[in-house]
Automatic annotation (TrEMBL):
<protein>
    <recommendedName>
        <fullName>PsbP C-terminal domain-containing protein</fullName>
    </recommendedName>
</protein>
<dbReference type="GO" id="GO:0015979">
    <property type="term" value="P:photosynthesis"/>
</dbReference>
<dbReference type="InterPro" id="IPR016123">
    <property type="entry name" value="Mog1/PsbP_a/b/a-sand"/>
</dbReference>
<dbReference type="Pfam" id="PF01789">
    <property type="entry name" value="PsbP"/>
</dbReference>
<feature type="domain" description="PsbP C-terminal">
    <location>
        <begin position="78"/>
        <end position="219"/>
    </location>
</feature>
<dbReference type="InterPro" id="IPR002683">
    <property type="entry name" value="PsbP_C"/>
</dbReference>
<dbReference type="GO" id="GO:0019898">
    <property type="term" value="C:extrinsic component of membrane"/>
</dbReference>
<dbReference type="GO" id="GO:0009523">
    <property type="term" value="C:photosystem II"/>
</dbReference>
<dbReference type="GO" id="GO:0005509">
    <property type="term" value="F:calcium ion binding"/>
</dbReference>
Amino acid sequence: MGKAWVMGFVAGSLGCGSSVRGQRGRVIREVEGGERVKVSRREVLFGAAGLVSLSVGGEVLAEEETSELVWKGPSSLGYTFKYPPAWTATKKQIKTHVSEVLVVKDGTSAQVGLVVDPVKINSLKEFGSPEQVADKVLGVEKKKDGTLSVKALAFDSFDMDGLTYYEIEYEVENTRGMKRYISRLTINDKNLYVFTGQAKIADFSSSEADLRKVLSSLYVKKSYNNI
């Protein structure tokens, strides 16, 4: 497996594209297998005309107080995640991964990116422990030009909906400043999903709640094709 997938989620920036917003409660746009859906709690609870809901594992994705956007990936990859309406989601135009999406909190350095890449194993446990994966990530960061220091802050693992997830938090200081990273990753059907939130230290405190909420919303439908 090597370092290829580690490089994929810690190196470089995810690309940008155009953003199209729609009316409340409507599918905004479908782009190459991904679509954004805006759902209101009122529509879900009262069945208003034009209701749009997205069922994931038997649960309807809906807002709590204000409308919330849902990114639905290609059906072959079976993932969804939610993000605030004030954020902008884009897909990379030059394809370097099986799937790649970036959501940005406008006016700040806060962003969350998802990349999906094929691997040869069925579970993260076959690759190593969360601590071992964190060591590899930090090792890659140390080798980047301009890196001054790296620091692991936390790492954990948990099982959800039949899949094992690792979560890694770390800081990187380089000649342009310091950033905080939170990565959540899993493997399903021999595809590695890496969902990484990041922000400059100056923006992290004000964006942390949103970053963690977006990261925790990731849902990947378990596949049994390669088990």
